[in-house]
């Protein structure tokens, strides 16, 4: 072996040394690339799109504000129901008068006193009767009593009264209940609209992070290739089979690839920061590509589904119903109101005040025959508002159709872009392979290989970006249709 090695020419010995060095550097770059991937994969926890969506529902303040409106609507509903509930009022009153007023009532039998005395004095039998019966009634005592003072007004007067009322009929009660029900439905609808809008913002943040993450992965792979190219160029210089110019160019390419990785990582961290701020959590996570969703053959099933499920269309319907309820409430004001009322009072008894405890029951009917045209004005306003909301609903329908058709065209455009980017990548990889073969045959230089390698890198970036954009457009398409996970498979059939 030593003899045969000694018989090799210097060029052959340099080629053999370059081959061994290339094999060593190739193994080193493979380990380096594996380290890149492992470091990127195990750095942090992964936050999926579904987890981010549910987290948004729990932490977003706009949703919390919208949900509080549901509580307000429930209070309005309880207020409307309270029309049928009885009311009880208890009033205590203390009055300090400047002076008390009293009347002296004379003894009506006093004028008979002389006559009774005369009869008694002149009738021995009567005297004997009273002597024998000391417990018998003596009219002289009744006639001899003094007059009696009667209080008309006390100086310190106390009164306690209780009043219970119950509405027996109120024409506005039933339209009021309908308005309360619609208020509750509109509050819940506002939550659904807020969720739909925020889901769009979440898609922008999340898919933006996914795009930057893909850029990081591809630039890291490109850096590994640039490292390999540089090590090969350095080995060629050491074995005197390459030039310093090629080594310097490879080093510049390696530094450029490092800057691309740094820029991609910085952009990815910024996108993670934006997503974390939107979710109000710490930016200690990575994202992952959401699963692909089936795409329907046409946009028609999406439009048909959206017409029955979009929350903004439901909001338009609720606005029309609300105006109808307002018009009914205005018309119902012409109906009379019938109230049953009971009253009980406890006070100090007096001559003109009656007994200490009194009570009464009444049925009261109130009917506003003419109210200056207020009912008519409110009814006309409600009818005009209803007409306006019907026109707005038509506008919303047109907007929904336009949004879905535009999103559909964007999805189709992204699909075509994927096909074009895949073809470009295939051609770039074929060109790179041919250029490397030409380099081995001496028909091409290292500069052409670098250019072909850059074309592959750019094509890979374009293809990855096109796939992410297409996936984002598909998610936007179903979001605009207000399709749930259960409805997606049905729509895509």
Largest sheet entry: 4 strands, antiparallel
Order of helices and strands: HHEHHEEHHHEEHHEHHEEHHH
Average pLDDT metric: 83
Q: For the largest beta sheet, what order do the strands appear in spatially?
A: 2-5-7-8
- Helical percent range? 55-70%
Structural class call reads alpha+beta
Tally of extended strands?
A: 8
Descriptive account of the structure:
The protein has 493 residues and is of the alpha+beta class. It has 14 helices and 8 strands. Mean pLDDT is 83; it is low at 1-43.
What labels would you give this structure?
493 residues, alpha+beta, four-stranded antiparallel β-sheet, two-stranded parallel sheet, 14 helices, 69% helix, rod-shaped, disordered N terminus
Topology of this protein?
Blueprint: H1 2-6, H2 10-41, E1 45-47, H3 49-59, H4 61-81, E2 87-96, E3 101-105, H5 113-121, H6 124-132, H7 139-144, E4 148-153, E5 156-169, H8 173-238, H9 244-279, E6 285-287, H10 300-309, H11 311-332, E7 337-347, E8 357-366, H12 374-441, H13 446-480, H14 485-492
Parallel strand pairs: 1-6
Antiparallel strand pairs: 2-5, 3-4, 5-7, 7-8
């Amino acid at each position: 072996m030593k003899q045969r090695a000694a018989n090799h020419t210097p060029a052959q010995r340099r080629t053999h040394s370059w081959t061994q060095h290339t094999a060593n550097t190739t193994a080193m770059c493979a380990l380096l690339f594996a380290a890149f991937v492992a470091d990127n994969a195990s750095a942090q926890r992964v936050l999926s799109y579904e987890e981010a969506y549910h987290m948004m529902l729990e932490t977003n303040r706009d949703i919390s504000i919208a949900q509080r409106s549901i509580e307000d609507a429930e209070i309005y509903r309880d207020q409307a129901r309270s029309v049928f509930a009885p009311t009880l009022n208890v009033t205590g009153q203390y009055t300090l008068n400047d002076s008390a007023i009293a009347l002296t009532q004379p003894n009506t039998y006093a004028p008979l006193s002389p006559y009774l005395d005369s009869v008694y004095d002149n009738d021995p039998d009567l005297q004997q009767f009273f002597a024998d019966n000391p417990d018998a009634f003596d009219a002289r005592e009744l006639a001899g009593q003094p007059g009696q003072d009667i209080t008309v007004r006390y100086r310190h007067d106390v009164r306690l009264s209780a009043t219970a009322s119950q509405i027996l009929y109120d024409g506005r009660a039933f339209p009021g209940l309908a308005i309360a029900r619609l208020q509750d439905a509109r509050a819940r609808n506002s939550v659904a609209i807020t969720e739909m809008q925020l889901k769009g913002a979440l898609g922008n943040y999340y898919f933006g992070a996914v795009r930057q993450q893909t850029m990081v992965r591809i630039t890291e792979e490109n850096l590994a290739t640039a490292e390999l190219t540089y090590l090969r160029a350095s080995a060629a210089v050491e074995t005197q089979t390459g030039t310093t110019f090629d080594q310097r160019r490879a080093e510049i390419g390696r530094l450029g690839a490092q800057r691309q990785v740094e820029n991609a990582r910085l952009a990815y961290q910024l996108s993670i920061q934006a997503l974390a701020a939107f979710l109000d959590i710490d930016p200690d996570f990575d994202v992952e590509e959401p699963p692909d969703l089936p795409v329907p053959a046409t946009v028609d099933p999406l439009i048909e589904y959206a017409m029955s499920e979009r929350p903004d269309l439901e909001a338009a319907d609720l606005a029309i119903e609300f105006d109808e309820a307002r018009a009914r409430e205005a018309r119902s004001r012409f109906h009379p109101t019938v109230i049953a009322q009971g009253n009980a009072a406890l006070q100090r008894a007096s001559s003109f005040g009656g007994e200490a405890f009194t009570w009464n029951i009444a049925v009261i009917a109130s009917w506003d025959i003419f109210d200056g045209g207020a009912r008519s004005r409110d009814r006309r306003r409600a009818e005009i508002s209803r007409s306006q909301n019907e026109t707005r609903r038509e506008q919303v329908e047109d907007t929904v159709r336009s949004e879905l058709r535009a999103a559909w065209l964007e999805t189709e455009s992204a699909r075509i872009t994927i096909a074009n980017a895949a073809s470009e990548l295939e051609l770039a990889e074929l060109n790179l392979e041919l250029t490397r073969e030409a380099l081995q045959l001496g028909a091409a230089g290292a500069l052409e290989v670098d250019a072909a390698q850059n074309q592959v890198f750019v094509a890979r970036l374009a293809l990855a970006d096109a796939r992410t954009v297409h996936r984002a457009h598909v998610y936007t398409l179903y979001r605009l249709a207000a399709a749930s996970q259960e409805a997606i498979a049905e729509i895509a059939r």
